[in-house]
Amino acid sequence: MEIKNYSSSTSGFILLGISSNPQLQKPLFAIFLIMYLVTVLGNVLIILTIHSDSRLHTPMYFFLSNLSFMDICFTTVIVPKMLANLLSETKSISYMGCLIQMYFFMVFGNTDSYLLASMAIDRLVAICNPFHYDVVMNTRRCLLMLLGSCTISHMHSILNIPLMSRLSFCASHVIKHFFCDIQPVLKLSCSDTSSNQMVVMTETLAVIVTPFLCILFSYLRIIVTVLRIPSAAGKWKAFSTCGSHLTVVVLFYGSIIYVYFRPLPMYSVVKDRVATVMYTVVTPMLNPFIYSLRNKDMKIVMRKLWFRIH
Fold first, then answer.
1. Could you read off the pLDDT of 161-218 as tens digits, one per residue?
2. Among residues 269, 84, 282, which one has the least CA distance to residue 177?
């Protein structure tokens, strides 16, 4: 791997972080440490709750438990390094470490996206075709959907990382972000990044827009079906089964679309940091609360699990 003028492969990069203000480093460390611990503990609790009761061994909770696992991995790729840099003066990350972080960030983030689409399909079948639900959403099909989600996400990373590794970095090696994301790294390159930009936009359409359109189509079908239900109670019951998932979708995709669906010249450091914190830290932390507090079955099983432990 040849790097011209500036050898990032030996020197690595400097991650500027959330803020360069020295007085904010320790308060930010405390805030993000608490958020990370809440994320890990909350999602572990979701996984334990689902696996502890056979009544929750259904496709919806199968995808939810895997989403919780992916959320733990997703934040673990980013937050521990960010916390270490908040207490460090150098705030450095090796060149290879940057590529590895970028690879797994894309893998877990994209898998999250496809799992949310899988959960939307599950709700679509449950509401629009309830009599064939067990046949359509069988164990084999759920496993294939999970395997497909992971495979497509890895293929996306395998395509992007070699292109990133060919870039040259001539002068600055300061990444104006708190982790190695594609756009901030492309900003530093003195190479022609047009091919990278084309691949990023094309692949983003494939791995983000495709599941998003799948979710949108599913909910349009669900809305049409629910509106045909004569009783108001029946409509409310049908919509309530989708409320938690729809809340997570809005939080997750809202911030992602803001960050990635713009040309490189329109990239804004401060605004994008805030939006990125939303889907990398805040959303994975809120997911356990959204799915547990808005779900009657989860609350019942959690209480049983709590009494069993004590």
1. 888 888 877 767 888 888 998 878 888 888 777 777 777 777 777 778 889 899 999 9
2. 269
Decide if pLDDT at 296 tops 50. yes
SS3 content of the chain, % helix, strand, coil (to 5): 80, 5, 20
The model carries a pTM of: 0.86
Counting other chains too, the contacts that 47-53 makes at CB distance below 8 Å and 24 or more residues apart are 48/305, 49/292, 49/298, 49/301, 49/302, 49/305, 50/301, 52/301, 52/304, 52/305, 52/308, 53/301, 53/304, 53/305
The whole-angstrom separation of Cα 274 and Cα 14 is: 19
Radius of gyration (C-alpha) of the chain in whole angstroms: 21
Nearest to 14 by CA among 197, 193, 192, 172: 172
248 touches 287 (CB < 8 A): yes
Is 4 in a helix, a strand, or coil? coil
Task: Report which of residues 169 and 142 the model is more confident about.
Answer: 142
H-run or E-run covering 44: helix 25-52
**SS3 (DSSP) at 266:** helix
Question: Which residues touch 15 (CB under 8 Å, ≥6 apart)?
Answer: 81, 82, 85, 91, 92, 93, 175, 177, 178, 179, 180
Poorest-pLDDT segment among 14-18, 118-122, 257-261, 298-302: 257-261
Contact status, residue 109 vs residue 71, Cβ threshold 8 Å? no
Q: How far, in Å, CA of 290 to CA of 254, rounded?
A: 17
Evaluate whether 48 touches 305 at the Cβ level (below 8 Å).
yes
Tokens of residue 75, six digits:
């934040």
Read off the pLDDT of residues 64-113 as tens digits, 9 standing for 90 and up.
999 999 999 999 999 999 999 998 888 889 889 999 999 999 999 999 99
Beta strands in the chain (DSSP E): 13-15, 92-93, 174-175
